Amino acid sequence: MGLMARTRISWDELFMEMAFILTKRSSCLNSQMGAVLVTQDNDVISTGYNGSPAKLPNCSDLGTCRRKEDADYASGKNLHLCNAVHAEINAILLAAKNGHSTKDAKLYCTHQPCTECAKQIVNAGIAEVIFANSYPNNEESIKIMQHGEVRVKHRPLTGK
To answer: What does the alpha-carbon distance between residue 64 and residue 66 come to, in Å, rounded to a whole number?
Structure first.
């Protein structure tokens, strides 16, 4: 009896699945996001998820979200009240902390980067961003990355 052929998942599928697994480490009570930073040769450089800076209390431990407690709470509003560092930034910072270049890297994200993350992605020299979930009315982050010569691909993950 011969060996059964099997289909391997693509690199894009693998790294996007990894990004979604990372969401399980998020300490944010509002949304869970993950990111995987890889070389052009598909070697993992670093990972990130959204949550409080190291050694600071996080919302899941405190059981409350300062932004949601604000009477003016709305999506994208009063971000200065949020303790969380975004997944993309955490991946970039971990690479820097460990002395790994982000130049020409690919960044896989569970969600479309916000405008602030988009600026950091451009400055980090990342060549390509692949994200699964988009945000309505947030074309500005795409424009920032494209203007900064970052290739941007929206690749919804089937089954997520």
So the answer is: 6
Return all residues near 101 (Cβ < 8 A) that are at least 6 apart: 45, 95, 125
Reference 155, options 120, 101, 109; nearest CA is: 109
Instruction: Locate all alpha helices (DSSP H) within the chain, ordered by sequence.
Output: 11-22, 59-62, 66-69, 87-97, 115-123, 139-147
Longest dimension (CA), the chain: 67
128 catalytic per annotation: no
* pLDDT at residue 116 greater than cutoff 50: yes
Residue 160 reports pLDDT greater than 50: no
> What is the per-residue DSSP string for 128-146?
EEEEEE--TT-HHHHHHHH
In angstroms, the CA 128 to CA 15 distance is: 13
CA 146/CA 113 separation, integer angstroms: 12
Beta-bridge partner residues of 37: 46, 107
Quote the mean pLDDT of the chain. Answer: 90
Report the alpha-carbon distance of residue 94 to residue 121 in Å, rounded: 14
Q: Which of 13, 69, 88, 140 is catalytic?
A: 88
What pLDDT sits at residue 2?
65
